[in-house]
Write a structure and sequence with these properties.
The model has no long low-confidence stretch (mean pLDDT 94). The chain is mainly β and 78 residues long. Helices cover 0% and strands 71% of the residues. Strands 3-4-5-6 form a 4-stranded antiparallel sheet, with no helix packed on it. A two-stranded antiparallel sheet has the order 1-2.
Length: 78
């Protein structure tokens, strides 16, 4: 799974369960080394709404230091 943020700041976070994947967070002020350690990826479907749901839990690191724990929840219809 890959999540991309585009614009003045550019970031691609790659998610694979139990792996840490590093990339650069590109800003107008310079680049910052970022690492995302995926702790879990869950996929499900809401029976009432028909929405597909993907939940990604990850730890974010910059320059080898843990920044925090995060969660992304995507809901969409196919």
């Amino acid at each position: 799974m890959r999540l991309t943020r585009a614009g003045d700041n550019h970031l691609e976070l790659h998610f694979k369960p139990n792996e840490t994947i590093e990339d650069l967070y590109r800003t107008p002020y310079g680049n910052l080394k970022i690492g995302a350690h995926t702790t879990s990826i869950k996929q499900s479907k809401d029976a009432q709404t028909g929405l597909e749901i993907i939940e990604i839990n990850y730890e974010l690191y910059t320059n080898g230091q843990k920044v925090g724990d995060y969660r992304v929840k995507l809901q969409f219809k196919c």
